[in-house]
Amino acid sequence: MLGYIIAILCVVALVLRPIYHSFKPGIRELPGPWLAKYTDLLRVYWSWKGDPWVTYRRLQKQYGNAVRVAPNVVLLSEQGQFDKILGFKEDFAKSDAMKVWTPIQNGKPVGSLASTQDRKLHANLRRPVASTFSMSTAITFEAGIDDTINYFLTRLDEEFMRGSNVGRSCDIDNWVQYFAFDVVGEFTLSSRIGFLEHGHDVDGMLHDLNKEFAYRGWAQNMPILDQLLKKNPIYVYLKSPTNKFILKARSLITQRLAQEKKTGRPDFMDRFLEAQKQHPEVVTNEVLGGYVATTFFAGSDTTAICARAILYYTLRTPGVLAKIRRELDESGTTYPVPFKIAQNLPYLDATIREAMRMHFIGSILLERVVPASGYTLPNGTKLSPGTVIGMTPWTLNFDEQIWGPDPDSFVPERWLQGDEEGKEAFEKRLAVMKHNDFSFSYGPRVCLGRHIAALEIWKLAPTMLGLLDVSLTPPPAPPLFLGRVWFENLG
After folding, report:
1. Extents of the domains making up the chain
2. Which are the contacts of 41, defined by CB distance < 8 A and separation ≥ 6?
3. Burial class (CB in 10 A: 0-12, 13-18, 19+), 338
4. I need a surface site. Which of 90, 108, 328, 354 has the fewest CB within 10 A?
5. Which of 49-63, 108-122, 162-176 has the highest mean pLDDT?
6. What tens digit of pLDDT does each residue of 51-98 get?
7. What's the fold here for domain 2-490?
8. May I ask which residue range the UniProt record assigns to the signal sequence (predicted)?
9. What are phi and psi of 163, to 5 degrees?
10. How far apart, in whole angstroms, are the C-alpha atoms of residue 173 and residue 169?
């Protein structure tokens, strides 16, 4: 009975809330698609078809840097606003979109680092493991990452470079993802998941994960739909976990907790368990599981998407690969490339940063709620408390005022000092670009796994480009973006 009552209330809210917001002061003054004034379904459709970032860029060009994209949501693309809204000074909480990403355990929502809306609660969850996700800790996993990179190269050799397999095309996009998930399993639970070993999506785990991301990607644009569907009490009560990736992760966690460590290398789980001992009132078993999930998602899909983008743009842009290889040769590096060498190779660094600029990992908006004090946009529009501001690097990353001429083209040299450019002018220009680089978000909700992701990316990319004789097949073409909705992939 309770489920039916909730469903009816949701339907009523579905009708009345958009009407209320359509006449809300501030946002009603902003331009945008006519239908966006009255329903969130338009945004649901943009995400459902798999390329919302295309629409957001088009809307910015059509209407300007402040566009109404839903009854209570503003798409903001203004330089200087991202860091202000996402930063430490303003009290902008995450929007209700995060409720769609909140995990349910034993019939109840469980706060996680990624989905928690309240800043204080997020800080409480983050504090026990902050040092675990630091760069100094990430570096301690380098040997384990090297082992998995070597195994990755061995498997590529076995599958594509021996005997009758010589010359066979490699679906490198999938293999990079296999590596990314296996390496995270290695340094998180001291156990690879098995994708590299088998060379395919084992038991459809990645398929299930992609399907779940796709659902949440469009549902988060209208959270009330999630309340009617997967958060409905009846559904929650009757539904048992069937996502194969989640079931596998739980199995690995159980095995890891039960076994004696056979290696001297500490893994993330060691540190999570220590955090639980030190902060038992915060780090419950449910929260500990959330830490593991955060590590997997921050260090796997992110790494895979970035690596694909780096490979794609490097291989399709004449001269880039040769410059990277020359830089690697002159460095005298060993392989896998040590992080301390990789981070000091200017052209490699420029290539990675440019690829990440061209292909931001997320296609959804970074949403924040206007606080009780309200907020005034650069154009003078005063937004009422409760209005949602949505931002995406997909609009900011192609602003000529930030990135210089031809921002739609892949040009690693934009990150380097020009032949006739003075040092002071270059440093000023570089500072502007880095200040507007939100690849891992910004402020108190910056991606907690950014250091481990950077470690993987800055090691994997130069190792592959330096050792493997690779080319795109068929010949280079304009980028094909496949709709994963949450994380956008290059195909």
Report:
1. 2-490
2. 222
3. middle
4. 108
5. 49-63
6. 899 999 999 999 999 999 999 999 999 999 998 998 877 789 999 999
7. Cytochrome p450 (1.10.630)
8. none
9. 55, -130
10. 12
Cβ atoms of residues 104 and 236 within 8 Å: yes
User: If you search the block for the tokens 């002018």, which residue do you land on?
Assistant: 425
Q: How is residue 179 written in tokens?
A: 């590596």
Specify whether the CB–CB gap between 74 and 387 falls below 8 A: yes
Separation between Cα atoms, residue 375 and residue 353, nearest integer Å = 32
Question: pTM of the entire structure?
Answer: 0.91
Spatial distance between the Cα atoms of 354 and 337, rounded to a whole number of angstroms = 20
> Is 447 within any annotated ligand binding site?
yes
Amino acid, res. 487: F
Q: Which tokens belong to 398?
A: 């192609």
Q: How far apart are CA 125 and CA 119, in angstroms?
A: 10
CA distance 66 to 391: 10
CA distance 282 to 275: 9
Find out whether 267 and 188 touch, Cβ atoms under 8 Å: yes
Which pair of tokens denotes residue 474?
């068929």
